Amino acid sequence: MTGRQVRFPLSGQVSRRSMLAGAAAGVVAPVTATVLGGGTASAAPRDRGKPGDGLLRRVTVYAEELPSGLYGYGLQPGKATVPGPVLEIWEGDTLEIELVNNTDRRLSIHPHGVNYETTSDGSPLNDSFNEPGETRTYVWSTRAPSEGPGGFWLPGSAGYWHYHDHALGGEHGTEGIAKGLYGALVVRREGDPLPDRQFTVVFNDMTINNKVAPHVPVFEANLGERVEFIAIGHGNNFHTFHLHAHRWAENRTGYLQGPDDPSRVIDTRDLNPGDSFGFQVIAGDGVGPGAWMYHCHVQFHSDGGMAGVFLVRNADGSMPEGAQEALDRYHQHSGGH
Amino acid sequence: MTGRQVRFPLSGQVSRRSMLAGAAAGVVAPVTATVLGGGTASAAPRDRGKPGDGLLRRVTVYAEELPSGLYGYGLQPGKATVPGPVLEIWEGDTLEIELVNNTDRRLSIHPHGVNYETTSDGSPLNDSFNEPGETRTYVWSTRAPSEGPGGFWLPGSAGYWHYHDHALGGEHGTEGIAKGLYGALVVRREGDPLPDRQFTVVFNDMTINNKVAPHVPVFEANLGERVEFIAIGHGNNFHTFHLHAHRWAENRTGYLQGPDDPSRVIDTRDLNPGDSFGFQVIAGDGVGPGAWMYHCHVQFHSDGGMAGVFLVRNADGSMPEGAQEALDRYHQHSGGH
Amino acid sequence: MTGRQVRFPLSGQVSRRSMLAGAAAGVVAPVTATVLGGGTASAAPRDRGKPGDGLLRRVTVYAEELPSGLYGYGLQPGKATVPGPVLEIWEGDTLEIELVNNTDRRLSIHPHGVNYETTSDGSPLNDSFNEPGETRTYVWSTRAPSEGPGGFWLPGSAGYWHYHDHALGGEHGTEGIAKGLYGALVVRREGDPLPDRQFTVVFNDMTINNKVAPHVPVFEANLGERVEFIAIGHGNNFHTFHLHAHRWAENRTGYLQGPDDPSRVIDTRDLNPGDSFGFQVIAGDGVGPGAWMYHCHVQFHSDGGMAGVFLVRNADGSMPEGAQEALDRYHQHSGGH
């Protein structure tokens, strides 16, 4: 049930050490990418290497049809998942994705938040997609904020972004997205805190990660761990993401810059198609361990199964009092009674 | 038509003085809570006591069925309203709610924005609700921002939050919310300006405070008064809240921190289920007195009756020119003509 | 295809010089307003005059029925467009709009973001509209941020706002809005960068500017030009605006205040009825020239035709490689295939 951390090096480096060694300007280095096992909890290490300076990272992504009829992206053949792996880079890095299309359908990969030329747009408009069986390279680059006009600054690339198909079944990848071709893309800025755990939550039509309760992921962490949520909206419906007993600031990181930061603090946020956001919380901080719900707050969506559990275990990893009973109740979740 | 300010002391204090006297660290003090009379205008005093330091406040809330078939929360038996009373505390305070369930249905109270253990979650998942006729205590705590990882800060609890049922009619309180079990929760930070008037606006399905025009509340203030709106979304539909002739900053308080604060200034904002926000305006500032509309800006929602009036009287409380005629027109509001 | 910059002076000034000459406190000066030709690209000059100090600007606006059955606002008789002209003033200015109703329907003009008395509300509630054939003056004023309570500041008027009918076909102008009576209103603050190009994008029900693909505007700019998008939501549906390969900060200007500004950077944003936002991008910056899509990211909306092209030409204005083919493909856009 726990995801695996997989790195795909260009030239045989497989350990974290070798990735760090490659982290110099202009040196090709592997991307840090996390495979979420079945959409559930995934351990992400604190050490993802250092912010690069024009660092080129490379990854091979496989698009495949799953036995269920869904489609997924994966970092190894036969290992596609819904959502796809978290792709994570430092602001300033460039990411080269070699997309292998192991399906019999036209498809692509289109990112949000980063830079790309029209050839890497991933859209049929720009003739940028993989034919069935085709392998194609997409290049995404990133950059720090820079001075703009009149003393204002142009935005950098750091953010909680996402990627998705833009070609399967139409001009806009509607069928590809509906069937699972999506994932999280994190671009970090130097100094951003790294999480202990990382979870991707995609509100896609009336599902979470193409599942409904009681099959929605149970995300697990231990009391006090730094947990990162990356929330993505897709499909045809509007949604609101709510997490019980935890909250975050409505800005780039979810943290405040200081005690006087005017950012709104929230525990519920609109999550509509194409939008994404992310934040970190300290699991159970101020509220204790237990089974905490996360769900769409549109009432008939939560009643219809858009609800999951964020299980905060005791600090030693043991099950807190009452949590198993809560999980048992969750596994009987139905459409309202 | 005007609401009443009611305080429920633990040990017999009933005056504002006694509340202030109790406002020392560790001392149990009554909560400041405002009963909105029929969902309409409510005077709130400038003096709500001082920011506490771990102050424990207690309040008894009664959940009751109303003659109309709606359900409401109230601060006295037989006095339940829709929306329920504004519960208002200082950041750092703890609030103990003794919820008396005077109905024959399972129900609960679930807050947004504050801290609570699983036993106070208010959800069936955590077996946290009142059976019919049962009294149960829920504890909500709050805290100031604190230093977090890497020089970032963890959010405090201050905000324009809300509370609602999470158990009547299902896992998520869908029936309870639909029928009126909701209200505003304000957590203030030391230094936050206090309002002269305070209004709760809940966009719940296709209603405002479970009413449609011409029965939606007329909120009244005098020119120059500091007026606080607390806006809450509920139900199954998406909405946009628009207030004529007044605007606010999209941040924690609705005020700017200074002339260079980059916050967006708005007069229309998404208000979707589970979301809430609040702000203060100076009534009629720069625009004069009169009958100003507030409404959902989704066209068929406003046409269908999601529209009310913010009546800004002259500074002396008299009716401004043209305002009575506007109110008369409002009382003939229908579904478009 | 290119819009025209038109100024309507009060007393015969027609050149930009004369407008600048009039830009002293208390002096009546023409409004800077841009007519968007057929909703497509419009050149806006860098020089719009200087921030005024209580400057009174005047403009005459004509509301007319179009041959298509739509309605539009225009700055000359017979020249109404959908969307209407961009009305643009400096924070501190007052704008007097003489609205000439050349139709046989009741209608009005209602602004967001600025100050107005009830007589200029534009709503039937306040008896503020034009009868068929009637001419009526509406006055909108603006102001800088000012000190408010407790060291906080009251918002100024600067922002990316909009105006629309509030009277045609009902209390809320639902028919007028549905049929095209809307436009952008920009209030700039001293120091705000001025754009080279300016585009208005209105998501109105299931259309963009009351058009669907392949008839949605192709917005054109040259590589490196400063391009301003003003995005407005209207109607009955929820939407999300996405622009390929460009992004902006979620604050008043879309720029950051500096490298540490915590504002979220985005390339997709909710755009629901009554809401509006704006931002500037450097065309093709970091991504190169080409045909970049902008579209609603709600999948069945984009498939249904809520998609257009932002054509970034080479710096010399020539067509970049592949762009004509992309435009050709766009012109065959259908409901998914």
TrEMBL record, chains A, B, C:
Q: Does the keyword Repressor apply?
A: no
The answer to keyword Metal-binding applying to this record is yes
What is the organism field in this record?
Saccharomonospora xinjiangensis XJ-54
Which GO molecular-function terms appear in the entry? copper ion binding; oxidoreductase activity
In its UniProt entry, what is this protein called?
Answer: Putative multicopper oxidase
Start and end residues of each Plastocyanin-like domain: 81-190, 208-315
Q: Which UniProt keywords apply?
A: Metal-binding, Oxidoreductase
Report the domain of life of the source organism: Bacteria
Q: Which PROSITE patterns match?
A: MULTICOPPER_OXIDASE2 (PS00080), TAT (PS51318)
Q: Which Pfam families has this protein been placed in? A: Cu-oxidase_2, Cu-oxidase_3
